[in-house]
Amino acid sequence: MVYYHDFLVELPRYATLGKANDFPIMECCPICRAKNRLQRHGFYERNVIAEECSFRIPICRLLCPDCGRTVSILPMFLLPYFQYTVDFILRILLVFWMTCGCLCTRQLRRFYEKRVFGKLTEMELFIREEGCLEILPNIRKEKAIKMVQMIQALGKATFVRRWWRHRISSFMAAPLYHGTRVAKTE
Ligand SMILES: [Zn+2]
């Protein structure tokens, strides 16, 4: 399972701190709800690509002594399974939509675009739940630009945490098929 934690540091600082970062202690298992302190269960490494640079960072894992499942502590700038940071993905899309500029390969940009276009209804619902009453454009691209800008304004930590908490699938995850859940486990 993925658990988001706000480390209060950005990616370069997180990378520099590495395993010495201040990882959270969890007294209650988010999977089985047992009130037993989760044990440290090592790290795995992930590549992270931001606009200016890329890093290889450790992701801390915790193990529940009751259910035996592991919890990965993910920093806010990451989406599960994506190497590009949230900020960078949103920038890639906005730059392309607004100026036709390309910050990554065309293939990758198309992939992100397709995912976002497939999430517009969910994104609108999310934005409405956040209290926005503004009328959104009807044209798909215009609507996507507006909503991505709103998400940027909300701040990625807020967005990722709230989205993850309230949605079955994470932002940018593949759509649901046949009622099956997109796995949150790793
Ligand atoms: Zn558990």
Overall shape? globular
Instruction: State the major sheet.
Output: 4 strands, mixed
> What gyration radius follows from the Cα positions, in whole Å?
17 Å
By DSSP, the count of extended strands is 4
Strand fraction equals: 15-25%
Low-confidence stretches: 177-186
Keywords: Membrane, Transmembrane, Transmembrane helix
Transmembrane segments: 81-105
Domain DUF6431: 29-92
Protein name: DUF6431 domain-containing protein
Keywords:
186 residues; alpha+beta; 2 domains; four-stranded mixed β-sheet; 6 helices; disordered C terminus; binds zinc ion; DUF6431 domain-containing protein; DUF6431
Short summary of the structure?
Keywords: Membrane, Transmembrane, Transmembrane helix. InterPro entries: DUF6431. With 186 residues, this protein is an alpha+beta fold.
Can you tell me about this structure?
This protein is α+β, with helices and mostly antiparallel strands. The chain has six helices and four strands. It has helices spanning 11-17, 86-99, 106-117, 120-129, 140-154, 156-166; strands at residues 2-5, 39-49, 54-63, 70-75. The chain has a four-stranded mixed β-sheet with strand order 1-4-3-2. Helix 2 (86-99) packs antiparallel against helix 5 (140-154), helix 4 crosses helix 5 and helix 5 (140-154) crosses helix 6. The model is unreliable at 177-186 (pLDDT under 50). Bound molecules: zinc ion. Zinc ion binds at residues 29, 31-32, 34, 64, 66-67, 69. Residues 29-92 form the DUF6431 domain. Keywords: Membrane, Transmembrane, Transmembrane helix. This is DUF6431 domain-containing protein. InterPro entries: DUF6431 (IPR045536).
